[in-house]
Amino acid sequence: MIRILQPEVVDRIAAGEVLDRPANLVKELVENSIDAGATQVDIEFEAGGRRVVIADDGVGMSVADLKLAPLRHATSKIESSDDLFKLKSFGFRGEALASIAAVSRMTLTSRLLGAEQGYRLQSEFGAINEPTPISAREGTEIRIEELFENVPARLKFLKSEPAEHGQIKTTIKALAMAHENIGFSVRCKGQLIFHWPKNQTFKDRTLAVLECDSLFENTYGDLKRESREPRAEILVSSPQETNNVNRNMWFFVQGRWVQDRSLTAAVMEAHRNLLMHGEYPTVVVRLTLPADEVDVNVHPTKSQVKFRDSQSAFRTVSRAVRGVLEKAPWLPQVSAMSSFEEQPQFSLQMPADETPAESLKFTDVALDRTQYQKKTFPAQIQREPVKNFAPQQTMPAFRWADLQVIGQMNHTYIVAQNHEAMFLVDQHASHERVVFERLMESCKAGNIEIQNLLMPLVFDFTADEVEALIKSKAQVEKMGLIIDRMGPESIAVQAIPTIVSESSVSTALKRLAHELSESMGEFAWERMLADIFASMACHSVVRAGQPLSAEEMKSLLVQMDQYPLSSFCPHGRPVFVKRRFSEIDREFGRIV
Ligand code: ADP
Ligand code: MG
Q1: Which of 97, 91, 98 is nearest to 54 (CA)?
Q2: How far is the CA of 195 from the centre of ligand 2 (A)?
Q3: Of 26, 71, 94, 380, which is least packed with CB atoms within 10 Å of its CB?
Q4: pLDDT, tens digit, for every residue of 558-577?
Q5: Where are the domains of the chain?
Q6: How far is the first Cα of the chain from the last one, in angstroms, to the nearest whole number?
């Protein structure tokens, strides 16, 4: 027999959808306060979120509105379905208060801005009483008690008190990072746990919420009326300070906290070659798009979004993050040395007769077999115009070339110093970084320098791989690898980039062939480029254990200044270690 469900049953079902956890209730209520124009929100919670009090200084409600507020589909925020597409508020369904009222003891106290007095309305598990006048502050206070008391099935699904409290705190942190203008004070079991003043900057609020010391800021894109481009505001940690869980990656779209795989991927893409496997940055991304470019109405708890153009959101985020990483503002910001005399003199000189007389160019022996026919390869990979960041003038005053080279340690590290610190530079990692960046840059500029090989290098592949390589011949050539089909299962390489060694080509080409035999989008190509160049660089450069002359070491430091990001090798290992003299003095007990 078909029956129309009783309204209270409908309400309880809906309550289960809107309020899957107490943290969601807190989110709905705080969003109501934000929609009401609050500048201060005070939150108290305990008992795993079964008791919650939220007070705001927003516009408040008239007695008539107070009566309507806990009714299903009662909302002041939209009138017609057209309004759904130009939504400015968080709420619009008119469901939250109705759902909460159905499953708790709720006390709503509100005084309309400018009204003589306030009113209080009580509801017990869906039974709503008449409002009564009461003296109250302007704004609204909502008190929830005995949440889910009448739905034992829901109660059973609640996690432990600390787990629910953890979720609530996370939710509040997210709300606070999206609304730095609003002040929050938060009490858990009577204890003040968070206090964030109103009108903070995005950065100050985020540093306070995430309890970290330093984050680096960038904005990318603007939101002019004609432009359909998203705008991103980001804060990101130095790649030297990473987490081993991805818990500190926060994303906001139109001011709403969202979980989105592709945005996470965009951040990780920007960190490519800067982090080791299993390392994650701390990052906060806030995206703003024209209202019709994004759909936030996809889930009752609105934690996911749909982009009309998800590629463009991905690119914006990736570039905004990359923009900071390329400036590397965490690198030692050493002020220019005021005079040469202040600089400590060498205490150890590398004896001249031990200096190996090798060429400055770290060329691989294999290169001697090649015929040097340098030419500029006129490839055309369009570099998209990069907006909103000015690379050169923001380079820190620190320069590797200014370091005094003291010598080489264990045939692996360059020992150097400036006026305040000692540096150990990993000769392999730093050279690898330089070669990698040079390859990336010249390839993107379309002027990669190549050398023709006297004897072509011939490699065996599967027939599929040969097909894929030949099909992408034009793109492979932009990477400085001139290839031809030798047979159904072999490829000849006629020319390679000047700065890589012949021995590095085999691994790189194998990898390329493998990747190419799968279909890819434009971005995957760029990522693959980085992989291939990282592999070529790694196999072309000076190794650990190789003796270097003073000139070679100096030349390496000079080259390191030419490229940003020079503090990490393409595999994410650090390039250098810095020890301040003050730290060393402390170890020797010279200073305490
Ligand atoms: P929605 O937010 O989707 O409109 P709710 O059930 O969350 O639905 O709230 C219903 C209505 O109650 C809101 O549209 C708003 O008019 C009013 N309201 C709720 N909370 C507050 C508040 N803190 N201050 C002022 N008005 C509020
Ligand atoms: Mg609401």
Answers
A1: 97
A2: 24
A3: 380
A4: 888 887 665 667 777 788 88
A5: 7-196, 212-325, 336-393, 450-498+500-538
A6: 85
Q: Tokens 């130009």 appear where?
A: 86
Fold of 212-325: Ribosomal Protein S5; domain 2 (3.30.230)
Q: Which of 127-131, 142-146, 181-185, 560-564 has the lowest mean pLDDT?
A: 560-564
CA of 467 to the centre of ligand 1 (A): 62
Concatenating the DSSP letter of every residue in 426-441 gives: EHHHHHHHHHHHHHHH
**7-196: which CATH architecture?**
2-Layer Sandwich (3.30)
Query: Nearest-CA neighbor of 432 among 326, 590, 567?
Result: 567
CA-nearest of 193, 179, 148 to 21 is: 148
Neighbours of 328 (CB within 10 A): 21
Can you tell me the distance from the alpha carbon of 391 to that of 255, in angstroms, rounded to the nearest whole number? 29
Which amino acids bring their CB within 6 angstroms of ligand 1?
A: 28, 32-33, 36, 56, 58-61, 65, 69, 74-77, 91-98, 140
CB-side neighbour CA atoms (13 Å) of 477: 16
Q: Are 30 and 52 in contact (CB under 8 A)?
A: no
What would the pLDDT profile of 7-43 be if each residue is shown by its tens digit? 777 776 666 666 778 999 999 999 999 999 999 999 9
Q: Which fold would CATH assign to domain 450-498+500-538?
A: Ribosomal Protein S8; Chain: A, domain 1 (3.30.1370)
Closest ligand, as measured to the CA of 100: 1
